[in-house]
Amino acid sequence: MSFIQTVLLGAVAGFTIYLGLPLGRIKKISEATRTFLSMTSAGILLFLLFDILSKLSEPIEAAITGTKNFTEFYVLLGVFIVGFGVGLLGLIAFEQRFMRLNSQSNRILSPTRLALMIATGIGLHNFSEGLAIGQSAGRGEIAFAALLIIGFGLHNATEGFGIVGPLIGENRPSWGFIGLAGLIGGGPTFLGTMVGYYLISDAMSVLFLSLAAGALIYIIGELLNLNRRPGMKFYAGWGLFIGFLFGYLTDLILTLAGV
């Protein structure tokens, strides 16, 4: 598979995120339904966090249990620690500096700004997915690269809903906002594919996965805080359950397909 073909297919995989984004324009729904759908978004992100942590552990553990390369192990572990810290603490600093009215405010982050932060966290994760596509194609593993493109494309379609979950029934986003959120969340798959085709690096993959993990932990906390309303715990719990289960079953289907 040529570089141009790989990049174009990587772009398709990344921009399927737009399939779920228009759901954010739903309006006039009950508080219970809004809470349920928003927490379904949180459930999808929670599963994504578990999935990321699982993928993160693979190269780090392989360095010490398989090849017994302790230098590589310490390097990858250090990259993970730094990436995780920057992803979590850096996002907090960015949010306090640029996204709240003032850093001393206890105001809950607005749904629109939270959606942008979710898109950022997902974008970091999708860059690592793009790396996997590009690296597989660069090694000549065409069939596996094609499976990755199909699998990640289907997965990204669910992530679009994860981004706009906080907006449903709240602030109806413009089409321009949806376009921006999709570019932030899905565009990195395209960029990662280009980089991965020529650069095969476990350290880079670990870095972006750990950045995404740190960012998602903070984002999930904000979503839980946003939906902490009296009388809504039942709907919030069901939304969290359904979202996590949906993410798991989607990933399980892709695993059974060999992706």
Summary, kept brief:
Helix 4 (111-138) runs parallel beside helix 6 and helix 5 runs antiparallel to helix 6. The radius of gyration is 18 Å and the shape is globular. The chain is built from eight helices and no strands.
Describe the SSE topology.
Blueprint: H1 3-15, H2 31-65, H3 70-99, H4 111-138, H5 142-164, H6 175-198, H7 202-226, H8 233-256
* Radius of gyration, taken over Cα atoms and rounded to an integer in Å: 18 Å
Largest β-sheet summary:
none
Question: Which percent range describes the beta-strand content?
Answer: under 5%
Helix content: over 70%
Mean pLDDT, rounded to whole units? 80
**Order of SSEs:** HHHHHHHH
Query: Could you name the ranges where pLDDT drops below 50 across 5 or more consecutive residues?
Result: 101-105
**Strand elements, count:** 0
Structural class: mainly alpha
Describe the global form: globular
Q: What is the distance, rounded to the nearest whole angstrom, between the alpha carbons of the first and last residues?
A: 18 Å
Number of helices: 8
How many domains is the backbone divided into? Answer: 1
Jot down its keywords.
259 residues; mainly alpha; 78% helix
Detailed description of the structure:
The protein has 259 residues and is mostly helical. The relative contact order is 0.25. The chain is globular, with a radius of gyration of 18 Å. The protein has helices spanning 3-15, 31-65, 70-99, 111-138, 142-164, 175-198, 202-226, 233-256.
